[in-house]
Design a protein that fits this description.
The termini are far apart. Strand 6, helix 8 and strand 7 form a beta-alpha-beta unit. The chain is 29% helix and 25% strand. The strands form four sheets. The protein has a twelve-stranded mixed beta sheet, sandwiched between helices. Among the domains are: 223 residues, Rossmann fold (3-Layer(aba) Sandwich), CATH 3.40.50; 92 residues, 2-Layer Sandwich (GMP Synthetase, Chain A, domain 3), CATH 3.30.300. It is of the alpha/beta class and 456 residues long. Helix 1 packs across helix 5 and helix 8 packs parallel to helix 9. The chain contains eleven helices and 20 strands.
Length: 456
Amino acid sequence: MIMPFESALPDIAWPAAVSGRGMATLSLLFQLERTQWWPADRLREAQQAQLKRLLDHAARHVPFYRRRLGKVADADGEMFWQRWCELPLLTRQDVQRAGDDLFSRSLPDGHGELTEVYTSGSTGKPVHAVRSDLWLLMWSAATVREHLWHGRDFSGKLAAIRESGTGKALYPDGERLDNWGFSTADIFRTGPSVSLNITTPVDDQLDWLSREEPDYLLTHPTMLDRLVRRSAETGRRPKRLKQVLTISEILAPGLRELCRTEWGARVVDTYSTREAGYLALQCPDTDHYHLQSETALVEILDSDGQPCAPGEVGRVIVTPLHNLAMPLVRYDVGDHAEAGGPCSCGRGLPVIRRILGRRQNMLRTAEGERWPLLSSDDIGKLLALAPIRQYQFAQTHPDRIEVRLQTERTLTDEEARGVLGWARAKFGQGFRIDLAFPAELSRTASGKFEDFVCLL
C-alpha cells in the first residue's frame, strides 16, 4: 500500500512530490519526531537559544519592549534564566492597552505575510493580535503532530461542530470540504471533512452525525456532553466514531469516561489559545498533556511567581517562540493548570496533569477562591432531577448563585426543590440559590460556553 502522501505533481505518484509548504511542514515534523524525546535540560537549552533571538528582535523592533527587557538576552546559561524570571508578566490588559505598540516595526526575511486575529475569549474584551506565515507553519506542524500522535487514519471522515458564525455551516447539510484542511492536506491525501454550526439544536446535531457517520468528531467539551447525554436518551449514536477531539473549553472530569461508555470513543483534548497557539497536546499513552516546548515556553507559576512542583496548581504563562510579528513575552493567558512530573511514555516534553480554567471564574467564598469543578457525575445527578436541556451557574453576589436553566417544560415544585438542594450541596450552604429561566444561554463569538461564571 502506497503511503497517503499528497503529491503536488499529478504525474508523480511515488515518492510523492509534496508542495513547497508541505515540504516545510515535513521538515519541522522530522525535527519534532526527534526533539520530543530530548531530556529536559536539552529542551531548555534550545528554548534559551530561540528566546534570545526573540528578545533581541523585540528590543530593537517592538516599541512596547524597548525599555522592558533589560539585559536578559546578553546572559547565558543559568544567569539567563535568573534574569528571565525577573521580567514582568504581560497581562491581557497590557496587550489591550499597548495596541499597535506590540506589533513589530520590521519583520526578518522569511517570516512571510501577516494575518490578524481578534479574540475575546471568556472576558468579552477583545485582544487584537497578528501572526506571521512562519508562526502558522509551526502551528501546522503541531496540528499534524497531534494527528500522528493519536494514530488517525487520514482516509477517514473528520466532522467538526464548532463553527458559530451567523449563516455558516447550517443544518441540515452543513458544509463540506474534500480534505481535513491545509495543514494536513499539504502533506497527506485525506478523506473529506464536514462541518455544522454549533448553535444547531442538539437533536439536529445527532441527526446530522447519524447521516454523516464520521470517523472523528471535533467539538467543544460542553457540546460533547450534551450530545452524549441526549444520545443515551434517544438511542441514536454515531456508529463509526473512533475518537472525539475536544478544544477551546475545559474538559470536565468524567466526560472522557462518559463518552467511552456511551459511544465507545476515546476523547483526545488539546490546549491552545488563538493568540499564542498550541500550548499542550494530550499524550498518546495517557490522559495528561505534553507542553509543546518546540514552539512555546510555558511556565506554571505559583502565587509567589515560582515554578510549580508536580501536583501544584499555578498560573499559565506562555511565550510563543517564533511569532516575531507580535512577541508575547511571559504572557499570562488567565488560566490555571496543575504541573505534572516526567511521563511514563518517555517523552521529555514537560507535563501538565489538568487544566482548571480561568481564575476570574473561580467560586468566591469567605474562605477564599476555589474551583467549582463540575464533574460529569455531578451534572448527571442534576439532569436526573428535572427535564433540563441546558444549564449554567453564575455567582452574582458574594453570597448568591443563580442557577440558569433551559427546560423542556415548566418544572414542578418537587423538581425545583431537587435542583435547589443539588446546588446547595454542590456549592455550600452559605449561598443563597436562585433559579432563573432565560430564553437563551449564549456562547461567545468563538463558540465557547462556560457552565460556571463568576460575575463579581
